Amino acid sequence: MKKFTLLFLLPLLSLFACNTEESQSGPQISINSLGTETITVEDEQFFAVQSGEALPLSAMIKGDTPLTEYRFEIHIDDGNDHNHRGKSSEVAWEFTKTILLTDQPMEIDLNTTVTEVPSTGIKSGKYHFGLYARDEFGKENSEYIDFYILEEE
């Protein structure tokens, strides 16, 4: 009888254990601000930063389960307009940085400098900024916003 009860309960317990992970949607991300100023392009507001300046970020990441890492990704807007200003010797800038969280918090209030934008050699114009977050179950979410890198004055 004990074997029968054990064989019946084990699959049932594993079902509940898996259900916790499955119902969890992954970290929630909210980007509050990026850059040092705002500009208007075609009646739309964007965050912006001058080339050569630090790129500040204010964001919130919340998890249903402990967070294990977050990542920044930056790349030029590769939309159809292709109106990226700059000299032919300048290249589209890309940046990626991953931060591993050893203390595995449930919530992170980010007020940090992502990186310093190079002062020379990159195209100015519209870029995409992505903030990714991953939890202990490997669930990952991201939030993307567009911003502008302005030519150094």
From TrEMBL:
Lineage, opening ranks: Bacteria, Pseudomonadati, Bacteroidota, Cytophagia, Cytophagales
Keyword line: Signal
PROSITE patterns, alphabetized: PROKAR_LIPOPROTEIN
Organism: Persicobacter diffluens
InterPro entries reported in the protein's UniProt record: DUF4625
Signal peptide interval: 1-19
Domain of life: Bacteria
Pfam families membership: DUF4625
Protein name: DUF4625 domain-containing protein
